């Protein structure tokens, strides 16, 4: 009896997760596949139109722009945010550093704020006429007319800065924990071998923190690829479509233009790209193995 | 973590290279500059929320409002259904958090401490759900929820947050590290059932990491924007981020209302984070470091 209970217990324990997973993930993805083959304004019955939505997407310049913008934000997080987090973690890992906890906790705070709060803050700071950033620039350099949110390039820069501000402290936590777990002896023997700071970093630190780096890279990739809140709230995807991301494209198609089939198709394209690439990354970096 | 700290305390015969004085100055200078970059926008918003409307954009900016006024807060709390938005956000986040923590702890326990057929596959399926972008389920989930008549906020706002794979992964890692098999065996010899073991042995031992997961989950739900945005159309049922968003979009850009709102919205999350920062920061990174 006891052993039978033990046999079935794990299935009972994971059942709630798989039930929810099925209802709120697998079923919706199935529905998305069906919808993507139809044209539907939200009322009546969807009309089956085959793969027309996908061929339309392939020709839709807005969708291309959205893909390009999402790619930019992915590159920003992988090549700016992740290295910045590693660098800050490295600084925080200095031996005998005072007030480490103060720095670590303050850097993390943007992550606990609501995106709407962050959007408000940066809309205030970056306002063309009254914003603090331009006021300071005017006072220091006598020039402060940059249209941070209204110029296509500057808007991308501004959103990228907000991503940097919001995510760096969060990722730093992971790197710092990993760095603290590297046995000090490894550094000592590297130093005896005459390795300088840079050599120690590439030969000792990087290999030792590889699992965490892999985790951070994959989660940053997934997070950035489905970016919605910041550009929607700060620039509304603008000016024009300069900061329109794929997730915003999906939202706009479904909830502003009532093209539910088209939106589902765009969502599936994003899903295929993100899911495919992250499985590939997982395999390459070997994370998520069963213990 | 405690191991690292203990190690630094043990006397070392020859301390590794000591940082030079200029090196120290550069280190603390950089970290302090970063501290300002991360904290200044928040302090500025806090101070702005106590300034009369005309003073918010004053230059040079003053950190201490003069004259200080609480009128902005009074206007927000009397003129807007702020507490109703706040209540809906907090209650739905609490429900989602409770369900998620239980689901994750149960599943994490099963994956950490049982052997069963199909475990590897099931774990892989669970883990891969981390790389499903929300944008792909946004449209179909919205349609399913509306068509099945479940679009009331108490159910629908909770649903997307109750089965986070990240939480299961975190629980599984923590259980492997901190709960020895012997305790479970001893409980079985005492005649405890499998669920009884989970309830009376595992859950109490898990308390620190349950706290971490709960905080994390609460923040996710409390700060979520996209799902409530598509789901809730009735102003009376708005969540806090949606409420702040309409104030912000109002034609006059009511910064004098929006700033106190942002402060009030952030106080609970920052307070909870500061109270439980140790558990949260260490709980978040523990899984990734060992994984």
From TrEMBL, chain A:
Residues 67-281 form the ABC transmembrane type-1 domain. Keywords: Cell membrane, Membrane, Sugar transport, Transmembrane, Transmembrane helix, Transport. One of its GO terms (biological process) is transmembrane transport. GO terms for cellular component: plasma membrane. Coiled coil: none annotated. InterPro entries: ABC_transporter_permease (IPR051393), MetI-like (IPR000515), MetI-like_sf (IPR035906). It is found in: Cell membrane. Pfam families: BPD_transp_1. SUPFAM superfamilies: MetI-like. PROSITE patterns: ABC_TM1 (PS50928), PROKAR_LIPOPROTEIN (PS51257). It is a multi-pass membrane protein. The chain crosses the membrane at residues 12-37, 71-93, 105-125, 157-179, 208-228, 260-281. Belongs to the binding-protein-dependent transport system permease family. PANTHER family: ABC TRANSPORTER PERMEASE PROTEIN, DIACETYLCHITOBIOSE UPTAKE SYSTEM PERMEASE PROTEIN NGCF. This is Multiple sugar transport system permease protein/lactose/L-arabinose transport system permease protein. It comes from Streptomyces harbinensis. The lineage of its organism: Bacteria, Bacillati, Actinomycetota, Actinomycetes, Kitasatosporales.
From TrEMBL, chain B:
GO terms for cellular component: plasma membrane. GO terms for biological process: transmembrane transport. Its main location: membrane. InterPro entries: MetI-like (IPR000515), MetI-like_sf (IPR035906). Residues 86-276 form the ABC transmembrane type-1 domain. The keyword Cell membrane applies. Keywords: Cell membrane, Membrane, Sugar transport, Transmembrane, Transmembrane helix, Transport. It is found in: Cell membrane. The chain crosses the membrane at residues 25-46, 82-109, 121-143, 155-176, 197-219, 257-276. The keyword Transmembrane helix applies. It is a multi-pass membrane protein. Belongs to the binding-protein-dependent transport system permease family. This is Multiple sugar transport system permease protein. It comes from Streptomyces harbinensis.
């Amino acid at each position: 009896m006891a052993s039978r209970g033990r046999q079935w217990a794990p299935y009972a324990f994971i059942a709630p997760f798989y039930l929810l997973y099925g209802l709120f993930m697998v079923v919706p993805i199935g529905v998305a596949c069906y919808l993507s083959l139809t044209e539907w304004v939200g009322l009546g019955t969807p009309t089956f139109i085959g793969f027309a939505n996908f061929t339309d997407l392939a020709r839709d310049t807005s969708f291309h722009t959205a893909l390009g913008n999402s790619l930019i934000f992915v590159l920003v997080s992988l090549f700016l945010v992740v290295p910045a987090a590693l660098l800050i973690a490295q600084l925080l890992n200095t031996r005998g550093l005072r007030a480490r906890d103060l720095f670590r906790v303050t850097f993390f705070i943007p992550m606990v704020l609501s995106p709407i709060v962050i959007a408000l803050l940066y809309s205030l700071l970056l306002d063309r006429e009254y914003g603090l950033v331009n006021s300071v620039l005017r006072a220091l350099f006598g020039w402060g007319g940059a249209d941070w949110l209204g110029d296509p390039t500057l808007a991308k820069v501004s959103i990228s800065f907000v991503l940097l501000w919001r995510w760096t402290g969060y990722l730093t936590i992971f790197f710092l924990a990993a760095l603290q777990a590297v046995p000090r002896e490894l550094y000592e023997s590297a130093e005896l071998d005459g390795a300088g700071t840079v050599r120690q970093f590439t030969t000792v630190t990087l290999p030792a923190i590889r699992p965490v780096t892999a985790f951070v890279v994959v989660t940053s990739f997934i997070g950035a690829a489905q970016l919605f809140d910041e550009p929607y709230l700060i620039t509304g995807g603008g000016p024009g479509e300069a900061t329109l991301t794929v997730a915003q494209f999906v939202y706009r198609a479904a909830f502003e233009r009532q093209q539910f089939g088209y939106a589902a198709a765009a969502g599936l394209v994003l899903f295929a790209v993100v899911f495919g690439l992250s499985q590939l990354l997982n395999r390459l970096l070997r994370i998520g193995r069963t213990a | 973590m405690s191991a690292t700290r203990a190690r630094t305390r043990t006397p070392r015969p020859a301390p590794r290279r000591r940082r030079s004085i200029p090196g120290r100055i550069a280190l603390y200078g950089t970290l302090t500059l970063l501290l300002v970059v991360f904290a200044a926008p928040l302090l500025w918003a806090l101070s702005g929320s106590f300034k009369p409307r005309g003073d918010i954009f004053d230059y040079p900016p003053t950190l201490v409002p003069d004259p200080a006024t609480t009128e902005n807060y009074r206007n927000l709390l009397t003129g807007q259904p702020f507490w109703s938005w706040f209540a809906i956000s907090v209650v739905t986040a609490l429900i989602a958090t409770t369900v998620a923590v239980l689901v994750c702890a149960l599943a994490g326990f099963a994956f950490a401490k049982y052997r069963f057929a199909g475990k590897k596959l099931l774990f892989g399926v669970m883990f891969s759900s981390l790389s499903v972008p929300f944008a792909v389920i946004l449209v179909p989930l919205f349609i399913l929820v509306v068509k099945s008549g479940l679009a009331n906020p108490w159910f629908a706002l909770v649903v997307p947050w109750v089965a986070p794979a990240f939480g299961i992964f975190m629980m599984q890692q923590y259980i492997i590290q901190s709960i020895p098999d012997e305790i479970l065996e001893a409980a079985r010899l005492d005649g405890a059932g499998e669920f009884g073991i989970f309830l009376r042995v595992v859950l109490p031992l898990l308390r620190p990491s349950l706290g971490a997961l709960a905080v994390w989950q609460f923040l996710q739900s409390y700060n979520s924007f996209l799902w409530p945005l598509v789901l809730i159309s009735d102003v009376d049922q708005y969540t806090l981020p949606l409420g702040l968003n309409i104030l912000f979009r109002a034609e006059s850009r009511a910064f004098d209302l929006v700033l106190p709102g942002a402060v009030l919205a952030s106080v609970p999350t920052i307070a909870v984070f500061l109270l439980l920062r140790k558990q949260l920061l260490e709980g978040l990174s523990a899984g990734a470091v060992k994984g």
